[in-house]
Each structure stands twice: as C-alpha cells, then as structure tokens.
Amino acid sequence: MSVVPAEVLPGGDLAAAETVPRAAAELGPRARLWPSLVAVYRAQLSRARVARIPLLFVATFQSVGIMVMMRGVVDTRAEAQSVVAGSSVVVVAYVALNLLAQYFGQLRASGGLDHYATLPVPPASVVLGTAAAYASFTVPGTLVTAVFGCVLFGLPLGNLWILAAVIPLAGAALSGLGAACGLLAPRPELATLLGQLGMSAALLLGVLPPDRMPGIIQFARDLLPSTYGVEAYARTFGAQPDWAVVLADLGVCAGVGVVSLAVAAWAYRRAAVR
Fold this sequence. Notes:
The protein is an all-alpha fold. It has helices spanning 13-19, 33-70, 77-109, 112-117, 123-136, 138-153, 163-184, 188-207, 215-223, 226-235, 243-272. Helix 3 packs parallel to helix 7, helix 7 (163-184) packs antiparallel against helix 8 (188-207) and helix 7 packs parallel to helix 11. The radius of gyration is 26 Å and the shape is elongated. The model is unreliable at 12-28 (pLDDT under 50).
C-alpha cells in the first residue's frame, strides 16, 4: 500500500490552490515628472560642477572682452544698452546652447542614452533636468558680465533683477535648441559644429547694435530666440521702461522654450529607441 500525500488529492490544499487564479504581480508606482526631473538635475549638477567651471570662466571672460572692445566703438546710450544686454545673454548661449549640444552629441555616440533609457524616468525629465543643470552654471557669469558692463558703460544697476527672468527663459529656449541639435545630429562632430554655429549667431546678432545691421540680418536676428531676452533686458535701462513690451519679449522666450524643449524631448525618445 502506498501513501499519497493529502495535498495532491482532489480535495487537497494544492488542488484548491491551483483552482484559484494567481493575482497579478503588483508593479511599482510610475515615476512622476517633477521628482524625476529633480533627481536628474541634481545628478547632472554634481557631475558637471568641476568640469564646467573653467568653461564658465571662458564664457564670462569672452563676454567681458567683447564689451571692452566695443567700448571704443559705441557712440550712443542705446547702443551701449544693446552691447551690455547682448554680452550678458551670450554667457547663457555659450553654456546652454554650445555645451549642451556637445554633451548630448557625445552621449548619443557613446551609447550613454541606453543608460537613461533603462531608468524609470520620463524622457522629458532627462532633457529638462540636464538643461536646467547647464543653465544653472550661467547665473554667476551672467551676473558678473552684467555688473561689469553697467559700470563700464555707465548704465544703472537698479533693474538687474530682471535677469532672474531672462536667464531661465532664454536659457530654456537655447537649451532646447542645443539638446535637439545634439540628439538629432548623426555624429558628435556635427553636433559640436551646430552648437558652435548657434553660439556664434547669438554672439554676432545679440551683441552688435541692431541699428547698424542690414535689413536681412535684422530679420535673422528676430528669428533667434535669445534676441528677445536681450531686448527685454536692454529695455530696462531706460528711465521709464515699457514693462508691457518687456513682458511680451519674455513671453516669446517662454513660448520658444516650451516648443524647443518639447522638440528636444521628442528627439531624445527618437534617439533612445534607435
């Protein structure tokens, strides 16, 4: 006579357990945008802090040198306002546009996007967090450039607070363009070239007084998103600034920033799945 375990009998516990449908495995909560963005921002900020400080010094020194050279060329107060405002925003363009294009271009070429693709974070948080980290490096250099320019050209320092809006809005527009260039370029060398061309455009079209430009160059200047940040800052030097026009210029920067960052997020998803 053989002994049969009770679990295998028709009325046993094992048979009863097999007749009960297994519960679906519970998944962890989906990562939300803002916590993921903050995590990416802090990681990028700590990673790039040491490497980007020398480059930030170069960007600031470049802008200060431009203002010193333009000091002997500028004749009117309006031209001085354009030079100071443009030189200040060039610091943002150098870091947010040029360096960000190089970073994403190298990240795509080296396969670093595969690492981010495995993380449970939305694609938009990777682009926004990285762009915000790079834009944060522009704050000290922009402030130093603006203060030096105001002292050099005898402009008032009372409205420097407007940079608290100009830096993030112009930085968002330029960071989105830089990230898109780096993610869409087929080779990192091309991404570097696009970033440098964009920074050069921001330098020439933003610093030079618009009244001295030909008509077609002025039209190209209007297409550059950083121009509206330059105009917003330059208008605050007047005795009675037209704040409605200043807000309109900042609104253009904000709108372009939303569109450019959305394009960069799409380019990130496209590059990550290839």
